[in-house]
Amino acid sequence: MNYKKIEDKDVQYLKSVVGEENIFVGEENIHDDYSGDELAGMEKYPEVLIYAKNTQEISKVLKYANENKIPVTTRGQGTGLVGGSVALCGGIMLSTEKMNRILELDEENLTVTVEPGVLLMELTEFVESHDLFYPPDPGEKSASIGGNVSTNAGGMRAVKYGVTRDFVRGMEFVLPNGGVMEFGGKIVKNSSGYSLKDIVVGSEGTLGVVSKLVLKLLPLPKNKLSLLIPFNDLPTAIQTVPEIIKSKNIPTAIEFMQGEVILAAEEFLGKTFPDNSSDAYLLLQFDGNSKEELETGYEKVADICLACGALDVLIANTDERHDSIWSARGAFLEAIKASTTHMDECDVVVPRNKVGEFIIFTHELQKEYDMRISSFGHAGDGNLHIYLLKDEMDDKTWNKKAGEVFEKMYNKAFFIGGAVSGEHGIGFAKIPYLEEEFGKEGMELFRRIKLAFDPNEIMNPGKLGSNYKVNLYTC
Predict the structure, then answer these.
(1) How would you class 72 by CB atoms within 10 Å of its CB: exposed for 0-12, middle for 13-18, buried for 19 or more?
(2) Residue 300 in 3-state DSSP?
(3) With the CA atoms of 35, 39, 40 and 41 taken in that order, what torsion angle do they form, in degrees rounded to the nearest 10?
(4) Contact 422/348 with Cβ under 8 angstroms?
(5) What is the distance between the alpha carbons of residues 321 and 326, in angstroms, rounded to a whole number?
(6) Is 181 helix (H, G, I), strand (E, B) or coil?
(7) What's the Cα-to-Cα distance from 64 to each of 51, 60, 75, rounded to whole Å?
(8) Of 79, 205, 393, 445, which has the fewest Cβ atoms less than 10 A away?
(9) Is the pLDDT of residue 473 over 50?
């Protein structure tokens, strides 16, 4: 694709749209943060960085970019892990950070309307102050809601409540030609043709720009507690999960973790975990509107775990105990990162009854390749976070081993009925594995959807649905 390089006349027009204080031109004037996301080793600066303040500005910028074939990459907080918000082909980076208003709380319809730059932690605090609840709970609380929608983020509560797509009722959406459309709304049911909002959710900025969101809320559960359950080994722990699900006493979250990850988190946080003596753990959370409801659920699940080989069941039934456990869980990623020189992640999702088989397979790979492989994840929904750790390997050895291990892990996931990504999206890094999952016919279908929205291919080129052979040197 031959994209137009930005000239002074383009800059002058863009300044007239967003104001001189909201545009930065040239690599020397753009902060390093905007050259990449959390994917290590992936860096490319846009030619121009723009902070949009409203839908009208987004519309004018996209219309101009589309007419002049200038690539546009939309960016929230840049917390992604797969290179999704990297401006591979330069052009315009359109930041929605300043579109961060909570516009309306509708308690009668149980919805909240927000701009895409609102942070997840801000939204959570706001709705809970009104005794309401937004269940999607990805680990990065400083991510923007727009970014969560872009990747269909999930998080720890997905096992009971679902993922971001399940809570998007409607959206205002700016097409690449500048047209503004409304998809969905406050309505609960809708069978009017294709669900365009659901196509946009998870599209990673490749179809247009979300400028407003109507999100579904629930009443805030009044009570919560957690169970920390130690096991002798991880396969035994994970094989307990299907038994928990079958009991129909479904927890809000079912997390698994290895003892070595807990030790890393203790060192990273400088705090002691309630128990660090076992090799494997399940961490369960329950919520409900009465203590009786919680007790009925967790007591049955505790009995199941003990019957399946649990060493103990530790109850965290105070806010202090609950928060100490979950704050440690929230630090796992940073703790693993701090324990090595470099790492890379496999974010596969597999059927729940195949989680144990996949984890055993990663242990075999760890021995075969003499490489540290750490893992934790959402055992209740089959979404696994597997981290390859470079430690003291030289670059050549690391690249060879990591490439082979990733290939084997993704092939294993596909073989047992899994998918390439559970919640982090595809971005740039996972395009080859997406092609393995869907094949040429599937990739061509993605491409046709992309072209229906974006015939000039200006939106986030090189990503989902684009000419996926694009790279840093062919734009």
Answers:
(1) buried
(2) helix
(3) -60
(4) yes
(5) 9
(6) strand
(7) 16, 6, 18
(8) 445
(9) no
The encoded tokens of residue 446 equal: 């993605």
Tokens representing residue 412 in the block: 């294993």
- Edge-to-edge strand order for the sheet containing 280-288? 314-316, 223-231, 280-288, 253-258, 373-378, 383-389, 343-346
Structure tokens belonging to residue 124: 């959570």
Give the tens place of pLDDT for each residue, 381-392. Answer: 999 999 999 999
d(CA 179, CA 181): 7
Q: What pLDDT is stored for residue 93 in this prediction?
A: 98
Q: Which of 27, 99, 35 is nearest to 61 (CA)?
A: 99
pLDDT at 88 over 60: yes
pLDDT, mean of residues 197-203: 97
Helix axes 319-330, 259-269, angle to 10 degrees: 100
Q: Could you give the CA distance from residue 276 to residue 261 in angstroms, rounded to a whole number?
A: 10
Residues 331-338, mean pLDDT to the nearest whole number: 87
Half-sphere exposure of 361 (CA within 13 A, CB side): 19
Handedness of CA 268, 273, 276, 280 (dihedral sign): negative
Cβ contact 70:91 at 8 Å: yes
CA 109/CA 236 separation, integer angstroms: 44
pLDDT of residue 469: 56
Q: What is the pLDDT of residue 456?
A: 96
Residue entry with tokens 């040197």: 473
Sheet holding 48-51, edge to edge: 23-25, 48-51, 92-95, 72-75
What angle do the packed helices 431-453 and 395-415 form, to 10 degrees?
Answer: 70
Q: Percentage of residues in the chain with pLDDT exceeding 90?
A: 78
